[in-house]
Design brief:
The chain folds into 3 domains: 93 residues, no CATH class; 231 residues, Hypothetical protein af1432 (Orthogonal Bundle); 72 residues, no CATH class. Helix 6 packs across helix 15 and helix 12 crosses helix 13. The strands form 3 sheets. The chain has a 5-stranded antiparallel beta sheet with strand order 10-9-8-7-11. The protein has a 4-stranded antiparallel beta sheet with strand order 3-6-4-5. A two-stranded antiparallel sheet has the order 1-2. The chain is of the alpha+beta class. A hairpin with a 3-residue loop joins strand 7 and strand 8. It contains 16 helices and 11 strands. Pfam families: DUF3391 (PF11871), HD_5 (PF13487). InterPro entries: DUF3391, HD/PDEase_dom, HD_domain, HD_GYP_dom. It comes from Thiorhodovibrio winogradskyi.
């Protein structure tokens, strides 16, 4: 799938292997899909997609016919502000009522991403191929430590801040050597591992982002500690709600939204040793700059830089990870989705720095090149995040695997370029992880 719209049609090109093609090539399909403001939503409309993270509403699916006024009200009460409807499957907005100007929205999203396209950081000190094996061991140790930390929290014990600092330091060293290694591996967690590995991933993301924002080393470590402990409140959530595979009831959704306050309360027991930044991020990582977040509905200037960082890192890892109720999105797709939500949700400066720290096409992203070859992103380029190193392994023209070959798209003599992101779920590539990591089962 390519582009930003959630409207896709099956390709008739046999070389596409039945993939979805960008709906912008189909006028008929485009006319059936319409983006509207949440206040225009009514029963009888077919909801195609919600313009926001699935964490922001109590629905386990986003494509269904709205028949219940209670569901409409639940959406209006959420932070979702825009949705896509399919007028071929449900009613349309009344004549004369304007829908959202999608051309302007696309231009804004494209500009937001392009502003971060040129990398400003130094080259990674250690090749990703060397750092991956160390990162696997760090992830395993970190998962064990965080699991124990959550277990202690459930029993009412205070956080072992000394142990947490050792873990943050180890993660920091890996991020400093090559941030892509640990960040990419942490994304591969299973649904069962999510609660614990999410803390590890956000810790690493926070430190990589902190360095991109030119924070000093002490501040970077504070950001890492905050990321590691930001979701501790989930230790107090009922497991049947935390791991529920289907739609949450309004009451269950309210319970889950209490986790920042619960976590803050638990961390107060060790406030002196963990620091104010960790307490702040734990309590406010779900706040949004437009005031629609929780628990305190803080607006832009009332939200600290660290809490704004936590909001970006938390959402990215959540939407790219497999959950009990939903498969994770592709990393590159997630970056574009987050750019769509940026107005009102994320601080623009923080979001652009986040994209720089991770890449527009993060390591592990499946991409299609102008040459017709498919490849997996291996490393970022120093000059442009639009031109990473890619391992080519498949030809869409011959519809066959080819001998793997790594090319650096940033080199002057390279005449190929990324044409689109591809959805791995639409291709039968069981060895995709092994292609970029060199390991068939990183956590096996």
């Amino acid at each position: 799938m390519t582009g930003y719209e959630p409207c896709f049609a099956k390709s008739t090109d046999p070389a596409s292997k039945g993939q979805f093609s960008d709906c912008r090539t189909s006028t008929d399909r485009r006319l059936m899909l319409k983006k509207i403001h949440i206040d225009q939503l009514t029963t009888g409309m077919f909801l195609q997609e919600l313009c926001g993270s699935w964490m922001e509403h109590p629905f386990w699916r986003s494509s269904f016919l709205l028949t219940n006024e209670k569901d409409v009200q639940s959406l209006r009460d959420s932070s979702i502000r825009e949705v896509w409807i399919d007028t071929s499957k449900g009613i349309d907005v009344p004549d004369g009522v304007a829908a959202v100007n999608e051309s302007e929205n696309k231009a804004r999203v494209e500009q937001s991403i392009r502003q971060a396209a040129f990398s400003s950081g130094d080259q990674e000190k250690t090749p990703i191929s060397e750092e991956l094996s160390r990162a696997v061991k760090i992830c395993a140790r970190a998962k064990e430590a965080v699991t124990a930390m959550f277990s202690d929290a459930r029993m009412g014990k205070a956080v072992d801040s000394a142990h947490a600092r050792v873990l943050v330091e180890e993660i920091s060293e890996s991020v400093n050597r090559n941030s892509a290694a640990l960040l990419s591996l942490a994304r591969l967690k299973t649904a069962d591992d999510y609660t614990y590995m999410h803390s590890v991933a956000v810790c690493a993301l926070m430190m990589a982002l902190g360095r991109q924002l030119n924070l000093n080393e002490n501040q970077v470590h504070q950001a890492g500690m905050a990321g590691l402990l930001h979701d501790l409140g989930k230790a107090k959530m009922p497991l049947e709600v935390l791991n529920k595979p289907g739609k949450l009831t309004d009451a269950e959704f309210a319970i889950m939204k209490s986790h920042p306050v619960e976590g803050h309360r638990m961390l107060l027991k060790a406030a002196e040793s963990i620091g104010a930044v960790t307490l702040d991020v734990c309590l406010h990582h779900h706040e949004k700059i437009d005031g629609s977040g929780y628990p305190h509905k803080l607006t832009d200037k009332k939200i600290s830089l660290f809490a704004k960082m936590g909001a970006v890192c938390d959402v990215y890892d959540a939407i790219t990870s497999n959950r009990p109720y939903k498969s994770g999105w592709d990393p590159a797709e997630s970056i574009r989705k987050m750019a769509e939500w940026a107005d009102g949700h994320f601080d623009p400066r923080v979001f652009q720095a986040f994209v720089k720290s991770l890449g527009i096409y993060p390591v592990g992203s499946l991409v299609r090149l102008a040459s017709g070859k498919l490849g997996v992103v291996m490393e970022q380029s120093r000059t442009s995040l639009l031109k990473p190193k890619v391992k080519l392994f498949y030809s869409t023209k011959s519809r066959a695997r080819i001998a793997p070959k790594i090319i650096d798209l940033s080199l002057a003599h390279c005449n190929d370029s990324i044409q689109a992101r591809e959805n791995p779920e639409e291709w039968d590539f069981p060895d995709l992880i092994e292609l970029w990591s060199g390991m068939s089962t990183p956590f096996g």
